[in-house]
Write the structure tokens for this entry.
Amino acid sequence: MQWEAVIGLEIHAQLATKSKIFSGASTAYGAEPNTQACAVDLGFPGVLPVLNEEAVRMAAKFGLAIKAEIAPRSVFARKNYFYPDLPKGYQTSQFDLPTVGKGTLEITLQDGTLKRIGVTRAHLEEDAGKSLHEDFHGMTGIDLNRAGTPLLEIVSEPELSSAYEAVAYMKKLHILVRYLEICDGNMQEGSFRCDANVSVRPVGQKELGTRAEVKNLNSFRFIERAINHEIERQIEIIEGGGTIVQETRLYDSDKDETRSMRSKEEANDYRYFPCPDLLPVVIEQCYLDEIAKTLPELPDVKKKRFIETIGLKADAAEVLVSSRELADYFETVVKASAAPAKICANWVIVELVGALNKSAQEITASPVTAEQLGGLVKRIADNTISGKIAKQVFAAMWAGEGDADTIIEAKDLKQNTDSGAIEAVIDEIIAKHPQQAEELRSGKDKMMGFFVGQVMKATQGKANPAQVNQLLKKKIFA
Ligand code: ADP
Ligand code: MG
């Protein structure tokens, strides 16, 4: 029997508001436990929540970016359950009338083709507190700072068919929310996390199999591993004659396994009802029109432009649009260097990103500015220096020795294009290696590389390789 996996993701993006969704308490990360939860976040008797408009604006911005239906009227509902990190006894969320309705997101598959994934809905809700198990032996600590932090829960259709697709989808959303500046995307701090619903079915079957929901996935690597594990576990059970129970499972990254946490609750277990303390949210077209004006160029559009008008290959474009900062950096390099975009892309992706990764630095803190890198690429393009020497200049720029021109001047790295001088070097080398010269003359083309190498070495890399090639041919075959 051939099996196919079906996956739907519920992604929680913490909205980057300064204050909570229904109170004025701060959302800043890392404060002393229980110093940032106010009476509203804790649901004390007599308090009244007030909706943070900024959270609605961010949800609407997201909705516009994925071309979703945005509800003219949405409603907050209470989702009732008991848990130590939820002293209110209910989470204020949205149920049947979410702010953002159906939309789509396109992912790139391994073979380069695109696949559209449906977004079912994206609703606003508040986060709960956090249980702390590590520092308390035999007890659990509760930190309620996170209670009331605004979340956008983005729910996908069950249309992802592999762990790879699930990760591609999640990465795509991760990039998008940061472009929109509605979420900082920090996965370690829990600002962007995911629950994966996984089921399997025989290939060709229309109905969905029974799913398990895997929680606690806070890195792309874990998501991929957890989903693959879950798929294998389910197939093994079914092939062994068992059945899958609908349940919530927890991924344990230390043991690299999923284990059952609780049987899956149904919506009606939560006794949802409209929150009597909050008015419905009414969104008018003019409000959306204003927000639409604030949308940046979105990653897909940028990628298309990089391919179609700048002439980049799809994979280079994909890397460059992975963050707004990287894309802006690249475009500044192109402008400052006036060099072909492909050379610029190569320098940004290979040298710059490579150096940033090595030193674990963000592009916003890059020791080499985009203007500086542009200045370097310009000198490659106008043949002042070779690509090889440019790497040396880049390292000096990285070390803070100044602009490309300053370094080229100070270290005397200018390419030698004086053909007389190069010819003299060539003559010398041919004289030193008569046998190799004879081989080259009699058709052993590989010897060309040997001679170019020798000349470059003799000139400390400062000769222009193309020129050396040309002059060598002239000398050998003259
Ligand atoms: P709940 O809110 O109870 O978790 P939903 O019906 O809202 O349930 O679905 C949550 C997620 O589960 C969605 O992303 C959806 O695509 C996915 N999903 C639903 N059924 C299946 C299934 N049989 N297999 C895989 N994913 C599923
Ligand atoms: Mg769920």
About this structure: The first helix runs from residue 53 to 65. The two ends are 71 Å apart (CA to CA).
